[in-house]
Amino acid sequence: MSEAIMMEKPATLSRDDLRQDFLDQSPWSTWNVEALKADASFRCYFRLTSGNSSVLLMDAPPATEDLDAYIRIASYLSECGLRAPRVLAQDLNHGFAVIEDFGFNTYTVLLDKGVPAEPLYTLAVDSLIQLHKAYGKTNIDVPRYDAGFYDDEAALFVDWYMPARLGRKLSTSERDDFLARFASLINSVNTKDECLVLRDYHVDNLMLVDGAEGVNACGQLDFQDALIGSRSYDLVSLLEDARRDVCPEMTERLLEHYLAEMPSTDRASFLRDYRVLSAHRHAKVIGIFVRLCVRDNKAHYLSYLPHVQQLFERSLQSPHLAPIAQWITAHHPDAITKPLVFDAQALRELLV
């Protein structure tokens, strides 16, 4: 059970002041504080240290982040046998929590050091197998990954990337046609064997926890936006990573490993869903990266675009994606992989 820290503070206080007040009332008030590198969300983290001990402080502004969902899903993952950080203290009203620190060995760091990839990825797939087998044995109240979520995500491609490519907004009919084509494909995704979908299940959000064994060694970091949806989705996130090349032969081996461990899964249906959701995710991420540049002034995300463009183009080679490939042929100038060049300020004035 985590400690609840209650603060009654004026609404005019800054996040820095609120965060300091939270720490002052906690057992970690005298510990050293180090800000950690921010990601694409509005959350930020700080490492608190004292001697050889450390914990993490999560700053999750309530206006944009759902700390309650993080805590509930962390508990659920632990009940399912996965390694989620223990929540040691919390203030839900102001969006602060102190959580377990898994250390420094993110998958990204380990892979960049040359640690063999396949054992790490196999452990991550085994964690998904554990999660998918455990689903239904305990309750979790989160929304379904329904048509509304999928439509909003597909819209990111046509609302942000396509204007950057064309220098204009799409017409209503062009936009609606794209969304209708993807909606038709998504509607055929299997809903019989749904499970908890973590959504951002990739190497930046996974850690190798020292001293742990089995799936307990695979630390989960980013899951507060989890939904109930297709079992194939998190495998797409992991094996078709928007920021890192993943060996295609290893991907095939890991998909076969997953299917072998889930013998009741309809292979053809699962692989079809995998192809459809990979194309959908890549289209979404392409739109997000453009939006991060234009709306949020985070232009460094554009450095990942060429890789995701390649993934999207490859995904469109599947016969299942013919309707989307046909739309791209009709409305997208040149190849998807052609470098994207645009005026961010002009696009900001057009779209924001």
UniProtKB/TrEMBL annotation:
Domain of life the protein comes from: Bacteria
Sections of the chain in a coiled coil: none
A matching Pfam family: APH
Limits of the Aminoglycoside phosphotransferase domain: 33-264
Gene3D superfamilies xref list: 3.90.1200.10, Phosphorylase Kinase, domain 1
Protein name, UniProt field: Aminoglycoside phosphotransferase domain-containing protein
Organism from which the protein derives: Umboniibacter marinipuniceus
Lineage: Bacteria, Pseudomonadati, Pseudomonadota, Gammaproteobacteria, Cellvibrionales
